[in-house]
Amino acid sequence: MSDKWTNTNFGNQLGDSSDAHSSTGSSSSNEPTARPANPPLTSLLPLSPSSLLEISVSDPQKHGEGTSAFVNYLITTNTSLESFSASQVTVRRRFQDFSWLHKALTDEYPYVILAALPGKHRMEYITGDRFNSEFLEKRKASLDNYMKRLAKHPLIAQSQILRRFLESNEIVPEFIAKNGQAHVFDNLSDALLNAFSKIKNPDPKFVEFKEHLDKFQETLISIERLHAKLIKSETEFELDMLEFGSCINTLGLMETQITGPLTDFGNILRNLCTILRERINHEDLETLRMRDQKQTDHEELIVYLENHRLERERVLNPQRGGGGIASFLSNKLQEIQGVDQERARQQKILKLSGKITELQEAVQASDDVSKAFNREMSREMDFFEKMKLHDLRRDLREYAANQVAYYDKCVQYWDQIVPIIENIRIED
Fold first, then answer.
1. How many domains in the chain?
2. Is residue 276 included in any domain, yes or no?
3. The CATH number of the domain where 61 resides is what?
4. Confidence of residue 324 (pLDDT cuts 50, 70, 90)
5. Does the reported pTM lie above 0.90?
C-alpha cells in the first residue's frame, strides 16, 4: 500500500469542479448555509508536517429540566491550519450537533469510511437516568474518540464542514443543501436507481474487502461480548470486595483489641475496590460498523438501456414478433382511432433513439463515476487498514499497560496488609 496520495479531480461527471476544501483564512461565524455546488471527489491529501489538528471533548454540562433538559459538551481545538480563525477555538455542542456533523460529512464524502457516531441511546451506559455521571462520562469519552478519529483523516481534517462545526457560534438546523443542478440521472424518472438493488458484477477487490470487514466485525462483536462478561464478573467481584471490607470494619468495632489493624485492613480493601473500579471504567471498547455501496447506478442504467434497445428492435422489426398481447391491443386501438401506423411507428423509433442516446451518455457518465469512486475507495481502504492497525496496537498497549498498573497497585496494597496482620498481638 502506497503512502503517496495524489489529487484527483473527476471533472464534469460529478458536476462543478470547484474546490470545496480550500483554506478560507478570513472565516467568521456568519457563514452561508449552503456548500458549493457539487464539489468533486478529492483523493486523500495528507496534512503537511507543519499542520496540526487536535480535538478534545470534555466538561459535559446539563441545562434545563424535565423534557427540555439537554447536555452539551466543550470542544477544544488546537490547530495550525490556516483555514481556522485562531490557533485555539472552543465551542459547546449538543449531541444533535454531532449528528448534524456526521450526516453532513456522510453526504459530502460518500466514499470515505467515517468513524461510527456513538448511538443516541446506549442502554449499557445507563444505570439510572441519562444525566447521571457515569452515562455522561462514557458518552463524553465516546464523542472524544469520534472527533479524534475525524481529525486523523487527511481529507476530513481539511473539510470546511468540520471547521464550521468546530468554530462557528451557531449551526443551522438544516443539513447542508445539495446542489440543485440537474444531472442526467435526475431525468430518468422511470429508472430504478436505488440503493436496494443488488450489484450484479461486483469488483472482486471490494468483495474481498467486505468479507474481511464482516469477519473483523464478527471478531469485534465476540470480543465485546466476552469483554462484557468480564466486566460483569469484575463488577460483582468489586461489590463482594466492598462487602468484605465493610465486614472487616464491623469486626474491628466489635474486637476492640485489634480495631486499628482491622480498620486499616478494611480501608486497604476499599482502596483495592477503587482501583478495580478505575480499571473497569478504563476498559470501554467501541465496535466498528462499516457501510459501502456505489456501483448500482451504472449497472441499473445498463439494464434500462438494454430494455430500450429491445423495444426499438421490436418496433423496427415487427415481423419478428414480440410485444405480446399488450402491444397487439395498443396497435388495434390506434387503428380504431385512425392513427397512421407508419407515422406513429417512425415517431416512436425517433423517440426511442433519442432516449437510447441519452442513456448511452448516462451509462458512460455513471461508469466514469463508478471507476472514480473505486479509485477513491481503494485509497480509503488502504487508509482504513493503516488506521485499524494503529488503533488496535494502541488499544492493546493501553490495555496491557492498564493491567500491569492495576496488578502493581494490587501487589502494593496486599503488601501493606501482610505486616498489618503480622503485627496483631492478642493479649492474654
1. 1
2. no
3. 3.30.1520.10
4. low
5. no
